[in-house]
Amino acid sequence: MVVLRIHDRPAPSFPPGRRDALLLGGTVFDLLQREEGDEACLELARAPDPQQALERAFHGRPFRQTEQAWRSHLNRLARPG
Q1: Backbone dihedral region of 9: left (phi > 0), alpha (psi from -120 to 50 degrees) or beta?
Q2: Does the pLDDT of residue 3 top 90, yes or no?
Q3: How many domains would you assign to the chain?
């Protein structure tokens, strides 16, 4: 399902909106866990403002760069094998 959704138009928003939250929300946490660890995931899950929380979770990395990293992560997940 993730593969089909990332190839749809329009492309999914970052962070994933309501339409995509169940399908793609986990991919944000997967990227965060890989880069920053479990504690960062817990903090993000509890945060009321997703954009600010994402900037904090990725240690102040600009939001746009985190979005680009997420889109690259999605593409890796969509590759066969």
Answers
A1: beta
A2: no
A3: 1
